[in-house]
Amino acid sequence: MNKNTENRYDELKAAALEAPSEPGVYIMRNGDGQIIYVGKAKSLKNRLKSYYSGEKDIKTATLVRHVRAVETIIAASEYDALLLENTLIKQYSPKYNISLKDGKTYPVIRITHEDFPRIFRTRRIIEDKSLYYGPFPNVGGMDAMLELINKLFPLRKCRSFKNRGQAGKREPCMYYHIGRCTAPCCGKISVEDYGVHVRRVQKLLSGETESLIVDLTAQMHEAAKSLQFEQAARLRNTIKAVENLAGEDSSVVDHDPESRDYIAWAAEGVLATFTVFSMRGGKMTGQDLFRARSAADETESLELFITSYYESSRPPPHKIFIQNTITEKQDAEDKNNLSIWFDKNFGYRPELIFPVDKHHTAILSMARQNALEDLRKRLKERGAGPALEELARALNLKGKPERIEGFDISHLEGKHPVASLVSFKNGVPDRKNYRYFKLRSVVGIVDDFAAMREVIHRRYSRLIREGRELPDLVLVDGGIGQANAAKGALDELGANLDIAGLAKREEELWLPGAKEPVILSRQSEALKVLQFVRDESHRFATGFNQRLRSKDLFFQALESVDGIGPKRAAAIMKAYESIDNIAAADLAEMAERCGISAAAARAVRAVSRLALQDRQSAQKRLTSSSAAGLAAEAGAGYNAEM
Description:
Elements: H1 3-17, E1 24-29, E2 35-41, H2 44-50, H3 58-66, E3 69-74, H4 78-92, E4 108-111, E5 119-122, E6 131-133, H5 139-152, H6 174-177, H7 191-206, H8 209-225, H9 229-244, E7 260-268, E8 271-280, E9 283-293, H10 298-309, E10 319-322, H11 332-346, E11 351-353, H12 358-382, H13 385-395, E12 403-412, E13 415-425, E14 428-429, E15 435-438, H14 448-466, E16 473-477, H15 480-493, E17 499-503, E18 508-510, H16 525-559, H17 566-576, H18 579-583, H19 587-594, H20 598-621, H21 624-635, E19 639-640
Parallel strand pairs: 7-10, 10-11, 12-16, 15-19, 16-17
Antiparallel strand pairs: 1-2, 1-3, 4-5, 4-6, 7-8, 8-9, 12-13, 13-14, 13-15, 17-18
Helix pairs in contact: 8-9, 10-11, 13-16, 14-15, 16-20, 16-21, 19-20
């Protein structure tokens, strides 16, 4: 392997390690940009990593030698990835897929366009206004669904149909007599009543089972009231069967022949990535991904992208779904400008649509997820350097703040006052250097300034004493008061560090002794870095405070037992370490281990279980950010500076 080949191999291996972990499709291209292989994966990252690790068979080794670039498309599910892979292979016929694919089309379920429709499986799509559901790679699962439909809904089975009831047909077939058909051929059911069954099947195949179950439940109760118990039992069994049926809906194949585009984007600072998913002939034909740099607002950026993307060789479809709506009054002129541009260049005006139904929203969400993934890659490639340089200029710092430490105070009316310290390196959380502090000087009182002075003094007196590296910037959660308090503590230590306070209400930056705040644009990348630090320190402090309050409540629960005072409660907690262990403890062991009676042990375990139930109820009310914070704390090696 020559030097260039080694470098290319290493680059592709590094790219595989950065691939998303979600399900999706990967596209491999050769040096000419041609697609040579399309594959699907439950985890794109794991699948792509496998190409560049371990021994490979001849076929895989040959493929890897020809790969020069790899693209990924995140899918909503492994099922969608499978369908998209099938579509792309048929569209591009990649060299290394041809011998591996048999070219078959996955079967679908068809509801014919007739007064009395028939429902069956097929591999042919006929443009006759029939409805199609699927495709279904799992043919066995599809057949099971059809079998259930045949049992639940008495629809006709005969292929050739004539309403023979009007022509004097006398007897229906066997399916009518066993309750599997309503015999429309003999005039036993009207078009309207037959249509009720068809609409229920449509809901079932679309996954809209909730309203169907409500409808069937109402009929079951009505049958029971009318003493039609056999009918009620059949409806009950139908409801159970529907509840147990899990159909699959696809975002990449929907059999809607109307051409559509879905445009989504993600932006951070001046970086923006646009993703276009195109649906043609009821199938997603791939992804177009475009990187841009723009300081314009969202509407202006979208307008510029649309007028650049569509051209004579790539005309717009008549429907374009976008992730926000250009219907605001201030955007009316922008919308009109686009309409004029479409008229002038293509002779028609596509409809710009903000989706409201589940299906189109799902496709657009998938497109946005791909845009976000590409933006993540771009930000990582570029690093936080530009944002930190902007921050240094905005705050007139001594240098680029590669190491930022953020502080926040948390308490409940002076009880359990704690402080958090989070550390960021080059704009990225450095969680191994997170710390928390139990504050001593403000127990029982509310004095955020004194609390800030204490934690700053304790943190940096220790670093100075141990000769350790100091941060480039200290960020405190709050305004001028907190910034001045931190500055005072550092002055006592003789530490000349840059300090700033970030006030949450208006996102103003305050420097110690300043008369006016520093105001950064809400789109500023420098501000976003500081917001990240501030929010992370707040999350960390709040999570620790909640844990202390929760532990305090557990002590109160133990002390509520007769004969268990503060010392005994502390001894029990020390012996078992957590309320969970106490709730699961053996009674005899607890009595012997803690020196309490069997009756007291039984009462302690009972109140512990009640306390756990209360905690579970309280956890449901916590915000998602707090829950995520506790999980992060459990997974990282945080240290306490008591």
